[in-house]
Known about the structure:
It is a single chain. By secondary structure, the chain is α/β, with parallel strands linked by helices. About 20% of the residues lie in helices and about 30% in strands. It is built from three helices and six strands, in the order E-H-H-E-H-E-E-E-E. The chain has a six-stranded mixed β-sheet, covered by helices on one side. The longest helix has 10 residues, at about 45-55. It is globular and about 45 Å long. Residues about 145-153 have low confidence and may be disordered.
Amino acid sequence: MNHDIKYDLVIGNPPYVPMVKKYDIHIENDELRNTVKSMGNNLWLPVFILSLEMLKENGVLAYVLPKNIMFVHAYHTLRKLICETMTIVSIVDLDKYFENVEGTQVVLILQNKKADDNHKIKYLDRDCKHVISVLQNVLIDEYLVFTTQQDVK
């Protein structure tokens, strides 16, 4: 893979597979392998991290991801990285949308630039009827779950 090529837009739906012995993959890059292990050890993680690296400055990434990225402790480091270095444009909660897929999913849309202090993330349901906005800078070190009026700024 040529890491010198950068893109304005990256769209994906990576595989969600726990990286256990049965499904272990070989990652040659030690830094990436250690990062993946520290962030949840799932196959979608190296795909997602490499996709972030492929973005041009101000480029946009739109990914279908497991909803548990928003609240599972193992993804805390990844959430912190995203909140500190990227702008979360929106999160679309797909709930249980796909047949024969366990769990629930979200579409995470990021822009490759640090968020302004007054930037608000739009959180939408899959029909885009229920919209909540919350300041991104209050989410650093926090869960990306905001469904009550108290969470909205």
